[in-house]
Amino acid sequence: MESPADSKLETHTKIELDRFHPLFAIPDGDVILAAKGGEVFFRMHSFTLRMTSGFFKTMYTLPQQNTPTPNDVVYTDEDASTLESLLRMICGLPLLPVETYDQLDSLLFAAEKYDMPGPISILRLQAMTPSFLEDPFRLYAAASRHAWDAEKSFSSTRTLAYNIHDLALRRVLQRLSTDALLDIFQLHHSRREGLRARLNEPPFVPGTPTVCPSCNAKIDYHTWRELKYKIILEMDARPLGDTILESGLLEWPESLACWESKCPCGRLLYDKAETLKAIRDCIDELPKSL
Ligand SMILES: [Zn+2]
């Protein structure tokens, strides 16, 4: 991230009036901010900036710069739209809609750079509005970066509908810090491994051959082993587990083979209803969020 100190403070003698943003052309403003490229200018009171930004507070507290003059221009790296959105937030003006994650990220980046807690809190609320909830990995990335615990927990649950090994997710995962990446991998992995361990314990049938209590015939539970394998593969693809419960256990060939398995004496090897309930209980007990 660029250091705020990189923003340049210069003095200009004259800027044409039509280059000022109409909402930020305050005649008695004592500081001018320039958007990236120097095409749009924003004149406002340095008091507002000092009160809402740690960066500007420090800037105007430095001995040599504590009295801004009306011609001071601070050149920023933010585009005009990002700067306008940010200034509207700190001035209490109606907010511009934030509709994409790229906009949200640019605004968060700038608000962080200028140490503006007010805009960060507004953006945090916006991140939980419906348009952003459809991309849980980007919400998770933003929440992790800003230590928004509730949003991190919420978005981590939403990621469970995705295969974290899918190459399509690579770009968004690359945005995560190592800790955030390891955390989300751990959550997904722990659900798969947790379920795998539980399916090898009672009330599920053992992995080793046993004897039918009715006819003493030797029973091998290979159909259950194959279904378990299918379940674990599905947990990798979608650790939420909903597809296992809602369709997999009713429709997969491995499931049907289990429910139809019989001992030579005619006894069904598996109680379908009890097994479905037991698997549902196991999935319900798995960790759901960070
Ligand atoms: Zn039998």
TrEMBL record:
Cited Pfam families: BTB (PF00651)
Domain BTB: 29-90
Segments traversing the membrane: none
Domain of life: Eukaryota
Protein name: BTB domain-containing protein
Organism: Collybia nuda
